Amino acid sequence: xxxxxxxxxxxxxxxxxxxxxxxxxxxxxxxxxxxxxxxxxxxxxxxxxxxxxxxxxxxxxxxxxxxxxxxxxxxxxxxxxxxxxxxxxxxxxxxxxxxxxxxxxxxxxxxxxxxxxxxxxxxxxxxxxxxxxxxxxxxxxxxxxxxxxxxxxxxxxxxxxxxxxxxxxxxxxxxxxxxxxxxxxxxxxxxxxxxxxxxxxxxxxxxxxxxxxxxxxxxxxxxxxxxxxxxxxxxxxxxxxxxxxxxxxxxxxxxxxxxxxxxxxxxxxxxxxxxxxxxxxxxxxxxxxxxxxxxxxxxxxxxxxxxxxxxxxxxxxxxxxxxxxxxxxxxxxxxxxxxxxxxxxxxxxxxxxxxxxxxxxxxxxxxxxxxxxxxxxxxxxxxxxxxxxxxxxxxxxxxxxxxxxxxxxxxxxxxxxxxxxxxxxxxxxxxxxxxxxxxxxx
Length: 442
What we know:
- Helix content is about 30%, strand content about 25%.
- By secondary structure, it is of the alpha/beta class.
C-alpha cells in the first residue's frame, strides 16, 4: 500500500493500566542490594507459585546489568515455579550462543546450568517458522486507526510458541529512547522481540513513515507503541515486566519499575526521558559519534547515527566512528546491499519498485539516511551527510549510498577541540534533541 499523509493522527487512547511499583528516580542511583530485594519482593507477591514462567531478556546490544537482574529473578522463582525458561528476545538479531551466551547472563564458560539450575535458556528462533504460532490478526481497519491512516493492511500476529506454552511471561530489560517506537522496552520485548517477521516489518515501516525525528524519544503511546500493545493483548499468558533505567556510561540503575508491561514501561519511560535525553540550544554542523563497543554490525550500531540526527544542522554531517565495526548485517546484509541507504521519500515515491522488499529493512535504511526528498527529475536530496568511519571497506560504503572516512585519520580528541563539532562518546543510547523543537525547558 502506498503510504498516506506523513503526519499521523493520534491513536485512540487505551484504557489506563494499573499503576506500576517504581523504585528510584532520575536523581538516584540504586545499590545492587536494593535492586535485588525489589525484584525478589515484587515477584514473590505476583502469585507465580506452580506456574510455568518464561523470562524475556535482551541480547548484548542493550545496555543493562542483566546478570544482576536475572540472578534476582532466578532467586525469586527457583523452586516456586513449575517451569522456568529464559529466552533472549532477538527480534531478527543473530543468535547468542556458547561463551557469548554465558557472558551475557553472567556465567563462567559452560556454567549456565550451575548459575541458573532448573532453568532452560534459549534464543528466540525467528528463523524457524515451526517455532512461531498464530495469535490472530490486527485487521486493516484497526491498523488504519492505530497508525493514524499511514498503514491500511492486515497485520498477522505470530510469536514464539513459548509465550503460549507458558502461563506467565516476565519481560526484563531497559527502557531507552528508540527510533521506531519512541521509547523501547515493555511489550516491545514481545513484538518485535519474539515475534514473526510480518509484525516486525509493519511496525518498523510505520515508524519510518512517521520519520525518525518525529518519533524518537517521543513520550507516551506513539502509533507504533499502540500497534505493539494491540498485538501484546493477544498473548494468552499473563504479562509482567521489570523495566530498568540504566546509568549512562555505568551499570547501576536509576530506577526499576514492576507491573504490567504497559504500566512498568510507562513509569520507566518517564525516568528515561530525564536520564537519556540531552538538549542542545542550537544545531551543530558536524557530529562525531564514537560508537559504543557493544555494537558489532551497522544494523544495530546505526543507533549511533539515529540518536544524534535531531541535532544535526541542515546540510551538516554525522560521522559514525567505529574502527572495529566491519559488517553491515549478518542477517540482512544482502537486502541492504541491494536497496542501499535512502530517505523515506525515495522508497514511497517508487513504491511499486520497493513494496516487495522487507519493510523492516526499508525502515532501517531510512533511519540511517535521515529525512530528505525525492522526485524523478531532481533525484534524492537528503538533509544531512552520513559518513562511516568503520572497517567496512570504502567501496562497499559508497555503494550503499553513504560517505566514507578512513578511521585511522580521525582523532576524536582533536575533533573535541573544534567548537563546530559535537563529539559523542559511548554513542548509541543517549538521545540528543534541540530544546526548542522538543519544547523542553532549560
